[in-house]
Specification:
Number of strands: 22
CATH topology of the largest domain: FAD/NAD(P)-binding domain
Strand content: 15-25%
Distance between the termini: 35 Å
Number of helices: 16
Number of domains: 3
CATH superfamily of the largest domain: FAD/NAD(P)-binding domain
Structural class: alpha/beta
Largest sheet: 9 strands, mixed
CATH class of the largest domain: Alpha Beta
CATH architecture of the largest domain: 3-Layer(bba) Sandwich
Oligomer: single chain
Length: about 500
């Protein structure tokens, strides 16, 4: 659904204010909820606007991972030591290149405090560890690896798992939002649903309010201190995707269907700058437990990455470097080792008794996969991966019979629903969302084209360019959104 955003309105053109608050927040996902709670904690009056009939958004549909560390109670209960410095170094590498170090170091430094803030509102993290590669664990364990133990990061920064998963039966995002929304409902924050923001109101160069459309009528709402945009990304706006991130065209989306870029466009209507608009998270349609036990190859039968790394990193490599023309090659032992609750019903598209036969079935150049597997097996037998540094835990020579899974139709079922089964030329090959957005300071102030804050305007969550450069790690959407939502709420209320 395209976003309808109009030019800003001068405060002199407003003839009647329908409502007024110190802080007006646009969007009721995790960032909007965190901003509202924190602004209220600071003593500000708050109006929280949501274009749908209830809050939650894409946050409520997410897996529920939050990237937290520095020695959280969950980490310690599972026997892991960690420091904010190690957490920051990993994120700088994994979220790069050009990840914002100031935001990352602040996020890592405050991670323990943020963990306490979340649990203080009842968000649950079970003190148990899940030690198998997965997009979303089939258990309710509260801690998992997210690439910290894989090359190249395992040799650069101290390793510790930091994937904190909200305890839930199935995806945890809904549980996170249940707790945050219950907390909002217990305050004097005024939630106004079915209210779509269409214009910002300017008092000189300061954002002083917002025009919302509700049931066919426009209303002007005054913001005495600030407006905070927390409306999500733009993956559901085809025009913006075509303009900023064309490689995502035709790929399945990972959202609630309403990440239409409206908040980004609102900011741009008053001169806001944007960052990282071409970057995205690529949820490739491969089962991580199969990937780590096999190899990932391109259409030429060549390996492209160490398969035990964070699977989103595999997805980015597959899309941006190989146009999703990639396969997982595994043997019978690897297939049998993966339990049904981890395999999600995926089956090989081709099975063969010899590598040469598999090459022909997959359309690889003759001898290409044969040479790839021969080289891999020779070094795997010694527990080595000289090309990519895959962990010895997952290294084993592959033996006949062999199977091949094509990313373009890899899942029979997805973890909770077949979200990746979207129409388009690349079909169910991946589920993507954008990670670029409005240029903000560490306090959520939205900056103009020369990097100066626009008075009265703030942003957080996927509507902003947060912790990310080009890379992504699970948990850095919910974690980023709630943490910087809090900072924006605090700054706006002040």
């Amino acid at each position: 659904m395209a976003a309808e955003i109009l030019r800003p309105l001068s405060i002199n053109e407003v003839t009647d204010w329908a409502d007024t608050a110190d802080v007006v927040i646009i969007g009721y996902g995790c960032a909007g909820a965190a901003a509202a709670l924190t602004a209220h904690e600071q003593g500000a009056s708050v109006i929280l606007l949501e274009m749908l009939s209830g809050g939650g958004g894409s946050s409520a549909m997410s897996g529920g991972e939050m990237y937290l560390g520095g020695g959280t109670p969950t980490q310690r209960a599972c026997g892991f030591d960690d420091t904010p410095e190690a957490m920051a170094e990993y994120l700088i590498g994994a979220l790069g290149p050009n990840a914002p170090e100031d935001k990352i170091r602040l996020y890592a430094q405050d991670s323990l405090e943020h963990y306490d803030w979340l649990t203080g509102y009842g968000v649950p993290f079970k003190p148990s560890f899940y030690d198998e590669p997965s997009w979303v664990p089939p258990t309710d364990d509260g801690l998992m690896w997210l690439g910290e133990n894989a090359a190249p990061f395992s040799s650069i920064t101290p390793m510790a798992p930091r994937g904190h998963r909200v305890q839930s039966d199935g995806f945890g995002g809904k549980v996170l939002m249940q707790h945050l929304m219950a907390a909002v409902e217990a305050t004097e924050v005024r939630v106004q649903n079915d209210s779509r923001a269409v214009r910002l109101i300017l008092d000189g160069d300061r954002v002083a309010g917002v025009v919302v459309r509700s049931f066919g009528e426009n209303r002007a709402i005054r913001a005495n201190k600030g407006v905070i945009i927390t409306t999500g990304g733009f993956i559901d706006n085809p025009r913006m995707v075509e303009q900023h991130a064309p490689q995502m065209i035709g790929v399945g989306t990972n959202s609630d269907g309403n990440d239409n870029g409206s908040g980004i466009l609102l900011g741009q209507s008053v001169g806001a700058g944007v960052r990282r608009m071409s970057a995205g998270q690529i949820g490739i349609a491969f089962v991580p437990a199969f990937m780590t036990r096999g190899i990932v190859v391109n259409w030429q039968g060549q390996r492209i990455i160490n398969e035990d790394v964070y699977p989103g990193r595999v997805g980015q490599t597959a899309l941006y470097e190989h146009d999703l023309e990639v396969w997982v090659i595994l043997d019978e032992q690897a297939f049998e080792e993966v339990s049904d609750d981890l395999s999600w019903g995926a089956r090989p598209h081709h099975v063969a008794e010899t590598v040469e036969e598999l090459e022909e079935l997959c359309g690889f150049p003759a001898g290409s996969l044969r040479d790839t597997i021969a080289f891999y097996n020779e070094h795997a037998a010694r527990g080595e991966d000289p090309l990519f540094g895959k962990s010895a835990r997952w290294l084993r020579p592959l033996t006949a019979p062999f199977g091949a899974m094509n990313v373009r139709n890899s899942f029979a079922e997805s973890p909770e629903k077949a979200r990746n089964d979207q129409a388009g030329p690349k079909g169910s090959a991946a589920g993507v969302f954008t990670i670029g957005g409005l240029h903000t300071t560490v306090d959520g102030e939205v900056c103009d084209l020369v990097g100066e804050p626009i008075p009265g305007l703030y942003a957080a969550g996927r509507a902003s360019s947060g912790l990310h450069g080009w890379g992504y790690v699970s948990g850095t959407s919910l974690g980023d959104g709630t943490y910087f939502g809090r900072r924006a709420g605090r700054a706006a209320a002040g």
